[in-house]
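How a chain folds remains the central question behind the approach discussed here. This step matters because it turns folding into a mapping between discrete strings. The sequence in question and its structure tokens are set out directly beneath this paragraph.
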Amino acid sequence: MPDTPFQQTYLQQPMLETADWLYQSSERLAQQLNYAAQAIMHTITSGGKVLCAGEAEAAWLAQQAATWLVNGTGRERPPLAALALTPPHSPMQASLSQQVRALGHPGDVWLAFSLERDDPDLLAATEAASEQDLTIVAFTGEGARTLGPQLRDTDVWVPLPGTRASTLFAIAWLALEGLCGAVDTHLLGEDA
């Protein structure tokens, strides 16, 4: 079946839109990622840990964050203390807020991913993290309607440009890779 110009334009549109969002916000996004890397480094070097979480597909971002922080992004280094908390799939499982209360300690980092959907468990867990004096690093859409009201002056907000959840996810994935690479650079220096 031959491609039509309409099909190619339709397929290119999400990629072009995401590239445009990234281009327009790259300076601010890089600055916030640097602050996030500094917060994580401060916690890790002080003996703390990073608790990562998200709901729905944002839970994949949390799992990848924990994996990259523990294993690194390709350079040999000791594992870092990071854990992805799992949203409950049944009433018998602990909620995210229960997990934060059980595992979080003052000075730890709460690395939360929100795609600006209704995330009640993530919101409750972020409130619990704040109550326990964890440093919050929140990846959210620019509206920050879900987690934004929970952020304090000492927390780090990583504003993801875009309006659709799929765009926010794609940009968060790229930003997360940059964040974990920055943590490795802080630990190991520039890659030779």
User: Anything to note?
Assistant: Helices lie at 5-45, 58-71, 96-103, 120-131, 165-188.
